[in-house]
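Researcher: Please generate the 3D structure of the following complex. Treat every line as part of one assembly.
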Amino acid sequence: MEGFGVNFAFWTLSAVTLGAAGGVVVSRNLLHAVLFLILAFIGVAGFFVLLSAEFIAMAQVIIYVGAISVLVLFAVLLTPRAGRDNGETAMALPALLLAIAVATVFIFVVNDTNWTTVAKSPELATAELGTALLSTWVLPFELASVLLTAALVGAIMLVRSREEEAEDALA
Amino acid sequence: MSFYDSWSAIMVAVIAGFILVGTALIATRLLAPFARERGKAVSYECGMLPIGRNWAQVHVRYYLIAILFLIFDVETVFIFPWAVTFIDLPMFVFYEMLVFIGVLVLGLAYAWRRGVLEWR
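Model: Done. Output below.
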């Protein structure tokens, strides 16, 4: 799977993802930073497609672009008096140093690792995943729905205050 | 089906989307008249000057809507591998998914019963 198209897509995606990640740090408006973060997530989904991991790309779009970014947006919107500034902070220099240190470690590890390349891509096809999920792993699969329902009920219990219950009782 | 066959359509759609939004943004810059005046930035042109910051607290009820979206968003991830494969699998696989969705519908029914879905 080599060729001009794949190389072009890789470099374009790299530029978009890195540019968006830089935008998250640089942009002054906090909501703009979240939008840049979403663009970076989409770029990562594109990388998964290039690695022929379709299901992970799909999950990346649904979970990160859909769910996580909504969570981040609501965290920004619901925080009182937090302001929408992505303002200056005294931690800028330590954070930069930490980021450089982490990047250095990552680059060394990536360079040192003996990456084995396989002739045929060992992709986990989405259909195989579905078959496994519904035959061998059906109990955890059903438990996942119970977990989701528990999260839903828990969220309702948290948000619905006692006063609102009293109002409902009166009405 | 090769890699290019299956993904070129999405590639074209992505590029077309970026071009559409980009041209819309650039065209407004080029075509629309802009009058840069200080008064235009004020909230009420003929009213009192607003005091404080332009920060409105979002009601907590939005949080529940977001959580509802989140739950069914994650459900989609589970439905997706089932949807591409259940035709070739025995019939009980279909009922397994019905149980999965049924449990979530129970949660939705509870939310409905508690009046979460009503906007007051």
